[in-house]
Amino acid sequence: MELVAWLSCGLLGLFSSNPIFKAISHIILTKTSYRKGLAFSLSERVLECMDKLAQAGIKIWLLTGDKKETAINIGFSCSLLRQDMKQFHVCLSKETESKNQLKDMKEEILHQIESSYQVMCQDNNKDSPFALVVDGRALEIALKSDVRGQFLQLAVNCASVICCRVSPKQKALITRLVKKHTGKTTLAIGDGANDVGMIQEADIGVGISGMEGMQAVMASDFSLPQFRFLERLLIVHGHWCYKRISKMVLYSVYKNIAFGLTLFYYEILTNFSGDSLYDDWYMVVFNVFLTSMPVISLGVFEQDVSSDVCLQFPSLYRQGQRNIIFSWSRVVGWILNGIVAASVIFLANVYIFSAAAFRQEGHVADITQFGAIMYTCIIWTVNCQIALIITHFTWIQHLFIWGSILLWYIFALAYGALPPDYSQRGFKILTESIGAAPLYWVATFLVTIAALLPHFTHIAVQRLLSPMDEHIIREMQHCKKDVTENQMWLREQRNSQRSTQVGFSARVDARIRSFKEGLSLKRISIYNKSATNTPFYISWTSSPLFS
Amino acid sequence: MSGHMASSSNGGSGSGDSGAPRRNSKRPKYSKFTQQELPACKPILTPKWVVSAFLIIAIVFIPIGIACLLGSREVVEVVERYENECIPPAYANNKVQYIQSSVDKTCNISMTIPKRMKKPIYVYYQLDNFYQNHRRYVKSRSDKQLKSLKNENDTSSCKPEHLATNGSTIVPCGLIAWSLFNDTYSFSRRQNNQSLTVNKKGIAWKSDKQKRFGKDVRPKNFQGGGLRGGGDLDATIPLSEQEDLMVWMRTAALPTFRKLYGKIEVDLEANEVINVTLGNHYNTYSFNGKKKLVLSTTSWIGGRNDFLGIAYLTVGMICLALAIGFTVVYFVKPSYHSWSEALICGAWPRDLVIQPFYHGTEALDRTKNAFWISFDGIHLAGTSHLICNFNAC
Fold this sequence. Notes:
- The complex is a heterodimer.
- By secondary structure, chain A is an alpha/beta fold.
- In chain A, 65% of the residues lie in helices and 7% in strands.
- Chain A: It is an enzyme of class 7 (translocase).
């Protein structure tokens, strides 16, 4: 459900630090969750969903309680397994199972794991991937602490992992181990009561409501009515959420540094006595009324690309997995931006409103006017800065940004109208002293532009030298290239699809490869059979079909 | 993709395809707001925008900078530092002792007017290294007491400078009032000894006169605390007319500040010499502060301050340079937009773009799939597509 996913993503993202913020790397799902759509039209969507998730760089494991043959069939049907994949089977043979000697069983499992791992290491061919099929009994042994490490190493390097005959406790155990071993964010999706342990263990648990009751739903962080909505939840909303939260946090750091540093700089000029540059109430309303609403609108409405582009370019999701937007370099960059903005604002104001008069009537600026003028510059700078980083402007963003600036003037007027007992330094500040001074407006204009110039130059240079994926996509859309040059648009889509080993597009890839190989074999045989100098042959081989 | 509508009923059949029309649908009401489909403008930073932004800033800033510079240049300002000159040679090493003694502190200096100064000419005194913005100092006042007589004893924020030696309250109390500046200046033209009147009315803010300083409050026991910090106040004049006090109590923001002393309402000619007879009463020698006397005209921009004009010109020039720089760079290294156009007509690397397309019915049947193969780089009249059907590859 669109609304539920959106709000939960937003709220969850706001109040928790980890789950949606870091994009998903692993999905653990149970058989029944995809079986939702056995009717053909919906299973198509499920296939599409799993394909997109694989293209987005998410690894998918399948845990089921069925026996091995059924599990393998399910794997084939949802393209987790392919004919050309090498399958490693880790299972106990009948004799060792009947003897029930722990030591023997461990040895056998270990032997199987090690030999599979060796095979994997020796085979350098990227095109034939590996799949791991593990039996429930073998899993129990393999998850014991001494064997665990090797098993997980093997499993994590396989393109897909299918576990059959898994008990609910083992599902939870596997989830926990994968989480710990890889250190990546995991998502578990299931629909039955036996999936509850797994759902709660994973970083994000998704429950599918429906046939088997609501236990999974009640234990989960998100609930969906159908499996296919997972695609939209992750690739659209997860991606947006990541961008939104990163931008919000970085901007908030910048805003408060820009504001607080001016106070610190002023202390240098007060002999470090602690006098504050601004009136107390100015400081109260700064973070509460005057700069909070644009940030909220950024966090709720920001979209770097539209939802259909997100779905067409699933590899945009990988930006979240690689944590590009919230890396240390970005944090430091925004802190520096805040420092530069504060320095520009402070120094400019100190030199502009130096000892000489600031009005034609000869009055000199004292602490009340100085503070109010610097505060105005900060409000303008900080709000225009957020206007520079927002990429998706609705009427709400415009209202909040320009409204916040206007609110400052309204506040100054209202505060100044209070009797001087209450308004202290702010008494009639706009109406009497600075409002009518041309120097005030001229200085605000200069300081705002000068404080934003470094950042603007930086993003212009960045767009030129190293544009990010979404910049290129948006530019193509802006120039209507996705419509006029459809082939290039598709080509870029293709380039964005990470080469995966699972999913039906990988299956198609494998098919094309085998087709090409077959054609080249045929070409060789034609070459050998007939004269090779005929014009027909030359034109045939030089056509693009045989590139 | 934006048409995903969840239409599942309450825990019923899992397939959820459209069934009877009167199903209990849980679909939320569609609105653009909740589905995040509000109309939006998505600005893109194309080269055109970058260069035009810098150009516009340059075009707007440079004239403003010139105007500000001209406005500042038309201000005539004469500054004369006097606190060292006005110490008689006998006390050259004992400045503090001199200022605290009761020796006659009159001093004569002269100021030369460089250019014609039109009236009104503002007279300021400038203090350096005087921290009127020190926190302890700033808090040491009682606004209530200043405002009305009935609050005369509301001196909690002035402590401990609130009581005179005889135990009664000081009005106005606090450090700010106590340190009132008390140098005096009188001006005369040298050539004909004509004295210039200094208008000391109208130098304080109107809001101070009307709202902050009461008409019924008169100074009482001022400088009666044993230690003298500055000047005296006439006990008969109400505070709302004590403009020097009002100007002084508007604490300055920076350690170097000027305060308005008065206005001269006549023109002064160029090259005129003005004799100033000043009373050097105020003690800045204890903390190495400087005292300066300033005569200044004003323009629309206020006093003389070249910084604003120069800053505008600097930023305008920088933006102009950036605009030119970016234009050059964009020609040398075109952005994605123009790059792609060059490629379409020229050498397009050959690649097959496969777009799988399923005939809805048996997607799971691996043996029957239809493929579209389209060629890049070959722009024929329409598009060239080949459809191949495979069986059991």
